């Protein structure tokens, strides 16, 4: 049981980088970006190809991040400059990336089991694995927080809140959108590269459903931990990614679901995270309305008694 929960935490931390990328487009830019399913695979494919050809795992991981940036920039350009609907631009880029990834890999699957990766040095010391992952994820989270508080980051956040207003102030919303989508997919590709190295393989189908996993992490994190400030929101996304993996691991351990039920489990978690806060909000509003009605009736009764 402990081993399963430890594995869930490790996987949640690895996926947290992808969830942070989805948070940028989904929450900050309000942009339905489906490029994620392709750029995640791109990160794993680039890292696997370079490592198997003798390149340093660090260089391979950085190149995977850059390729993710390029994929996101293409989607942003299609939307901002090509005036293509954001959802359609993401779908088109996702389709294109499937062929690009397959051409890069040369085959559907690449093994990394007999090569040195970023995790080779600590592969025999699992006790150090989670602290290392926490340090990496926190560094990425704090860097993202710092960026979002710069002038460029504030313009990015303002573009998502009210693009028309920010344009009236002279800011270039097209540049902000391209930058945001690019950064998002860079983080997603980075997550794909790390997971490929940790798992020991890169697969052409590994990115299928990635956007749903990212949304699940964002929504679960916000529902449980809240999102009043940027720091709190990004922390909630990281914790949401871990919480989602823990929930799924616990469901598997108590024999509620089989491993093949991952998709329906994801759907149910997202539905619960969306519905429960809405129900709570509705109940609070009804309770508040009931108290106000009782107060008004009480005031009316007292006023009638005095007259």
TrEMBL record:
Membrane topology of this protein: Multi-pass membrane protein
Range of residues in the leader sequence: none
Coiled-coil intervals, chain numbering: none
Cellular location(s): Cell membrane
Entry keyword annotation includes Endoplasmic reticulum: no
Pfam families: BPD_transp_2 (PF02653)
GO molecular function, one term: transmembrane transporter activity
Gene Ontology cellular component terms for the protein in this record: plasma membrane
Transmembrane stretches, start-end: 12-29, 58-80, 87-106, 126-144, 175-195, 201-221, 233-252, 264-283
InterPro entries registered for this protein in UniProt: ABC_transp_permease (IPR001851)
The entry's keywords: Cell membrane, Membrane, Transmembrane, Transmembrane helix
Superkingdom assignment: Bacteria
PANTHER family with a match to the protein in the record: ABC TRANSPORTER PERMEASE PROTEIN YPHD-RELATED-RELATED, BRANCHED-CHAIN AMINO ACID TRANSPORT SYSTEM, PERMEASE PROTEIN
Name used for this protein in its record: ABC transporter permease
Organism: Paenibacillus sacheonensis
The organism's taxonomic lineage, starting at the top: Bacteria, Bacillati, Bacillota, Bacilli, Bacillales
């Amino acid at each position: 049981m402990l081993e399963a929960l430890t594995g869930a935490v490790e996987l949640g931390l690895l996926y947290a980088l992808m969830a942070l990328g989805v948070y940028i487009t989904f929450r900050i830019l309000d942009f339905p970006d489906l490029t994620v399913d392709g750029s995640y695979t791109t990160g794993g494919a680039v890292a696997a190809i370079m490592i198997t050809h003798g390149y340093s795992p660090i260089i391979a991981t950085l190149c995977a991040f850059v390729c993710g940036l390029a994929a996101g920039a293409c989607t942003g350009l299609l939307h901002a400059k090509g005036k293509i609907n954001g959802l359609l631009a993401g779908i088109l880029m996702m389709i294109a990336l499937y062929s690009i990834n397959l051409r890069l890999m040369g085959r559907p699957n690449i093994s990394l089991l007999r090569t040195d990766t970023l995790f080779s040095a600590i592969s025999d010391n699992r006790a150090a694995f989670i602290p290392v992952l926490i340090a990496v994820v926190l560094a990425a989270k704090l860097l993202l927080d710092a960026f979002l508080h710069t002038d460029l980051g504030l313009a990015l956040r303002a573009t998502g809140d009210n693009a028309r207003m920010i344009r009236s102030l002279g800011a270039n919303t097209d540049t902000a959108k391209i930058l945001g989508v690019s950064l998002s997919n860079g983080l997603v590709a980075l997550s794909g590269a790390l997971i490929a190295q940790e798992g020991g393989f890169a697969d052409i189908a590994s990115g299928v459903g990635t956007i749903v996993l990212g949304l699940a992490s964002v929504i679960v994190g916000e529902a449980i931990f809240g999102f009043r400030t940027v720091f709190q929101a990004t922390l909630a996304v990281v914790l949401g990614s871990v919480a989602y993996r823990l929930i799924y691991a616990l469901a598997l351990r108590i024999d509620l679901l089989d491993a093949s039920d991952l998709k329906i489990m994801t759907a149910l978690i997202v539905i619960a995270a969306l519905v429960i806060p809405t129900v709570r909000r509705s109940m609070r509003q009804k309770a508040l309305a009931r108290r106000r009605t009782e107060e008004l009736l009480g005031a009316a009764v007292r006023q009638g008694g005095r007259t």
